[in-house]
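Pinned message: reference record for Transferrin-like Protein
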Amino acid sequence: MWCCNIFSIFVSISLFGTSCSSQDIIDYSKICSTSPGSASCQLIGRSQEVACNGNQHGVDCLLNIQKNETHLGKITGDEALLAAGVDLSEDVVVLGKITSHHPPSETVVIVNNDIAWNFVSLEGKTLCHPGYNHDSTFSYFMLQELENKIIESKSPNCDNITLLERHIKQLSEFFGPSCRPGPWTQNDKFDKTLKTKYSSLCKLCTNEHCNENYPQPFNDSLKCLLRKNADVAVTTLQEAQLFFQNVANSNRYKYMCKDGSVKSSSTPCSWTKTLPDLVVAHRSVVGQMKNFLQKNLGSHINYNLTLTRDTSNNKYEEPLVDLLELQQRKITFLENNGDFLSLKKFVNDYTTVPNPETSKQCDRTLRWCTYSDLETKKCKWLRQAAVNWGIQPVVECVQSEGDDELSCLDDLKKGSADIVVASSNYAYISLKKELTSIAFPETDTRYLSQIFVVKRADDSSIKSFSDLKGKSACIPQFGGKEHLSLIDTTRRLGITDDTQCDYGKLLNDFIGDSCVPGVRSSLIKDSTDLVDKDKMCRRCKAINQTKTAEYCNADVINAYFASQGAVNCLLNNDGDFAVVSKKDVLNDTSLTALCKNDSLASMNGLLNVNTDCALFVLASSEVVLKNDSSKKSDIQLALYEFEKWFGQKLRKPFHLFDKFDNEPDLLFLDSTPGLNFEGNLPYMEEYQRLLNNVLDCNTSGSASVISSMSFIISFVLLTLCFTF
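Predicted structure (tokens):
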């Protein structure tokens, strides 16, 4: 019986937005939903059998099913392909596939009849490709299969150019005049450069720079084949079958198969077939889930002759159709003698899952530094998603021995990793470790860092920045955005020595006994050589009041760590002033801001203080790598693709900027809407100006500064120029 076998799960009604019972505890199984408070979820909750469980996306649905916290869900074919390439439990099974009157999409290659039985015979021939910039169910990887076969047949050539240019160059050298329409990269400037340099791949396009976007790409590639008298075209099986209904076409062209063989127009051979959308469940409840759907989905189930359709009660059909996205579609159960295949086996039986290890090119990888098990897990899903999409270089996830960004920054300096998303709390540390920005995560205006200096409102001894000299400071973290903002302002006002370029020493000489968490970290020794660490730790305290010695680590055990901690330090009279980020502190009217124009704010608290008073308004984080990395251009091109396909795209297999496995802020902050590569938003320009002021500081005694490249010049060159 269904009721006897469902899981007992204790869930508050408010969590799922349902009102199915007045009881505090109810027994039911759960179905994935991105809108657990929706009308459909409320209706399903009334069944007393199934209720919604909130999931950000299909990947989280799969992970929750794996943990048996959710029991049923719908995923896309792309999400299924992604899951099959990672470490997913065999307990996630395919209950059924979702079908419609449209057959699954399949790619095919059509060639002229004079083409022989191998890929070598295509050399010098003309190609018509559908391009990549269209709303297609096909990934780059699928549409690049022919191109990859061509490149595999040639001898390896790893010139000192990006992997993308290597790919384009080899295609240009292999094929004759062709048409590969649409963008070749999301970087517009580099796209134009490539199309100018390898213009033969645009010769057959109506636009000489192949900037056209085909309205019907798979039909238009066949039109190109006919009108330009070309030799090869990539299209879909459906379009090919329509094409071959014309006798002249069937006599002139044939299929080329994935193994290089050729077949007549009446014997199609597909390269890749897209996976259908699937209904998945946890193995332990798959039978019950099937019974529930049979009972309630009615006309949205494909029935065979041995299965009796139950139409006795389908009042939950409409909400289930909504939750499983079954509009004009049906579920076909995939049961075999009472058993259901695991998702991994189903996908591997259906198609070839791309392998990251065998996809590496020229031994070049993008080593992403992580600092927690869960972040590494998300990185591995990104790695597989990128390979599935055909993005190079292949991502490698390198988990640091430490457990924070600082340890990753050190790994980048040592060369054991390539990139990490670094908080602006480590702005100065990143510079001292000779790291530079390659991209900026965009920041919602609510999460921008507005940096303020605050004092106690009743302290009349502080009226200007010069009054701060020698006083006790509460700084959220050594080397962070607040530290840099304070020193930059005092240098601008001529209060601190503008010939001294060590921002650690400048802070040290400006303040008295203070609390500057993190100053003793062994990972930032290159930033604290000229600092009296005891002085900077003297006012710090541990949360545990039984400890008598000052606690100076940059972590939550330090009562004065971070901006709110710095405010607490000030309010407890352990400091005379604090430098804080407005978004990270509670509004307190017992504080008064000291504005960047060297005057006090007209009102107490920070809530209504104008941003013009702030020392800086800054980006929250940056994607950094080593200044001298030989992989800068490759990595940035990959980030462009991540931003497009795993960020901007509405229907995406992987959500790079969202929660993962119900955990926030992994790899990127969840408040990140996307990446910016030009650094041209005001808060990014402010951040660059702040860092550039550090790098531009001129003194004959600072070898590290003399050897540093201007941040602005470095970033602009990195954005606009690539090694060809």
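Pinned by admin. Summary line: Residues 559 and 565 are 6 Å apart (CA to CA).
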